[in-house]
Predict the structure.
Amino acid sequence: METRFIKRLDLKRNGVAVEVTVLQAIEVGRDEDGHMQHEIWFIKNDELDSIDQVRLLEVLQKSAKVHDFQPLYATLSEVTLRNGCNALDYFHQYVKILYPSGTIERPRQGKHGVVQRSSFV
């Protein structure tokens, strides 16, 4: 299945790309060269067992029916999985954030990405 949500990212900045499902990318500002910087909310696909892979595929298929016009996070919030759980609540256990600095953490209230500047004036 082809979708804009499946990406390969160099998470460790070591030249090795890992397949992830991107839930949303939040703009946090521009770097010194004017390039837009993002917080990338993602799920590492290789961390899902076969059952959860099927569950996520079902959500991606539903998202494709609406032409991927909204962030996958929004679609997850609207989907009830076959096990009766809300997809966003269920998959939140796998979500991580890649900050512009390269740091990867679990989502926590009160934390937001910022663009790093080489010096303060």
Summary: Residues 6-105 form one domain. The CA atoms of residues 47 and 94 lie 8 Å apart. The helical segments are 50-65, 72-78, 87-91.
